[in-house]
Structure formats: C-alpha cells, structure tokens
Amino acid sequence: MPNSPRAIQKSKIEAIIFDIGRVIIDLDPSRAIATIGAESTLAPDKLWQAVQADPLWLGWQEGRVTARQWCKNLIARFHTPTSFNEFCKAWNSVLVPKPLLPEHLFKRLSKKCRLVLLSNTDPIHVAYMESHFKFMRYFSKGIYSCDVGASKPSLKIFRAAIKAAEAPPERALYIDDIREYVFAARAIGLNAIQFRSRRQLEAALRARHLIR
C-alpha cells in the first residue's frame, strides 16, 4: 500500500508533482466570461459550463486546436466581436494573480525535492503563467496536456510527469484538488493527496518531513 503513512515514512520523497489550477493558482472563470460571453443571455456559471462542453474543448486542452482556432470558435459561438489579443487577455484573466500557495513554500521544497508541474491546460495559459508567476522558477519541468496530447486522468500524462520527476513513483508525491485525479495517480503507484487548503497541505508536508 504505497499511500499508507507507514509506506510513506519508509519511502523517502524525492519529487513532488503539483497540479496548478485551484492548487497553486486560483481560477475565476467569470472574469473571462464577462468579455467572451458579453453578448450571451446565459448566467456566467452556465456560460462557462458551455465553454467546457464545447466540441473543441478536449482538442484545445490536448493541443489539437490552435489558439486562433479556439478564439475564432468561441467568438462565432457567442457572437462577441473581439480581437485575438483582447481574447487572450480575457482568457488569461481566469488566472487569479495572487497564488493560493506562497512562493517561499516552493523555495523550501525545491531544496529537498525535484518539483514538477502537471496540468490540464492550454497554450495561452501556459505562456501567461510562465511569464507572470514567479513560483514557476522553482519547478524543473512543466507537463501540460496541450504539449503531451493527453489530459488527466490519462496514464500517458501521468507517465510523462513521472519521467520528468526523475524518481520512481513510490518516491514521488502528487498533489491535486480533484479526487478522480488523485485516485488515478495512486493507481499508477504515486503517493497522492487531495488538496483542500494551504493549511491542510502544509500539515501533510510536515507529516512527510518535507517542511518543518
């Protein structure tokens, strides 16, 4: 049982793989919807659900749909005239500027473990995150669905993350807010915990002697 407390204590953690959305960076889709869906009569939450249910969504997340194709698709669907640059600005506004976790946490962890990012995300968000969020400097590698061509809970993307972690699964810790993805990580042999709050995460890291 690789995820039991006893097993974790016996197996030293050499790498930590972090999800991004709602773990490190909070998400506020209403900020993007205010622009992209300005002409729609749907409520913001319903409109965002419609965006995620779009036939091109999976291809967008897995790199088969380009940024301009995605922009053109949503502009046509919601009848909102806007330039590509304005669309990208609105799309990136989903990413709340103040991270949920402090930069100093990653600085401390990076001295003990190799840090890797694993996220279902798109090229517009990747470019923005890598240029605007300072915590990124502490991560050795970012594994993104739009680059891998597969999204969580696919085994393909988890295997890519394990390879990037340069550690066997039993010596890597995975952190995600989505329960389904935590279970998928455990099924492939990773230690995994579900993120609920900064306080809960820090307690879990202390239990594993990764921070004091």
List keywords for this structure.
212 residues, alpha/beta, Rossmann fold, DNA polymerase, domain 1, 5-stranded parallel β-sheet, 12 helices, elongated
Written description of the protein model:
This protein is an alpha/beta fold. It folds into two domains: 131 residues, HAD superfamily/HAD-like (Rossmann fold); 64 residues, DNA polymerase, domain 1 (Orthogonal Bundle). 48% of the residues lie in helices and 11% in strands. The chain contains twelve helices and five strands. Strands 3-2-1-4-5 form a five-stranded parallel β-sheet, with helices on both faces. Helix 2 crosses helix 3 and helix 2 runs antiparallel to helix 6. About 3% of the residues have low confidence.
